[in-house]
Amino acid sequence: MDSKQENLIKDLNILVLPLAALGDLTVYLRLAWLFSNAGARVTLVSDLLYTAKTCFPWLNIEKESCKVDYRKNCSEYDLVIACYEKYFDSTALDYKNIAFVTAKKISKKANIDGRSVEVKGMIYNGATRPFCLNSDAGITMVQWVDRYVFDVYGIKPAVQPAPVLTDKIKNNNKILIFPTTPQKKKNYWLNGFKVIAHQLKRKGWDVSFVCMPVEEKELRDKIKSFPVVSFPSVELLLKAVYESSVVISNDSGGGHIASLCGVKTFTFTRRDKSFTWRPGFSGENQVISPLIRFKVFGRYIWRPFLPLYIVFNKIGRYE
Hints:
This protein is α/β, with parallel strands linked by helices. The chain has 11 helices and 16 strands. The strands form 4 sheets. A 6-stranded parallel β-sheet has the order 3-2-1-4-5-8, with helices on both faces. The protein is globular, with a radius of gyration of 21 Å.
């Protein structure tokens, strides 16, 4: 970033309108952190994260409104970066300082991919685009966000991850397991997670299962040997994850939150271990993918072939 760009970024007032899902939110937090670390004032709109705003003192977090007022937003902020899936409206194209972004794909029908933005007289080419330009590149979505911000705005990746502040102290004996996602085809067997929990308990670890509040009763009935917990807010979830030593999860927001907090993660997936949406923040992020997989009647068979020994060998015994 040249001196002119650097000085401009430091003076910018930026609004980020993210996708609502927890895993996606962590990626937009990375986007916000890169601008904040470069000196900009950043506001991110999210009902989920609003409860946890004290954990991110470097960021202004506001609640979502019923309807986005692009005229108001584009006049109050120097730059607006909005999630294409949630916020795209062709009327927003009347304003030159709004960019639409997405994880992987913008519809060709929208005819906006590659659109530039104008910010205080500076043109930033290609500001509207997907973060990920090649799913086979082997890098994480976090790294793709870093590339986006560097390619378009000239901001180098931040060396330090986004700070997450809590009043919790690390509990090295604590392991959290996130056994569910809304997409059942992504979920490893619940009984498999229970086997893992029993093995780790025998090795001296304190294991709990984490789920959504609406899932808690059902999981309690199915998992009787371990605590099953849920959290009414992201703030409480963040604090519980932060104080843990390891998080084991399906391909889900739990793993991304743990990685964001610098906690060691193990992500179970049917995909290749280098898939783009794996956790990619600070900490040690291990993907557990099947040794083999195949399709039967259009469905992947992968769960029996996960090398669980990697989890046990990496975690070891609690001393």
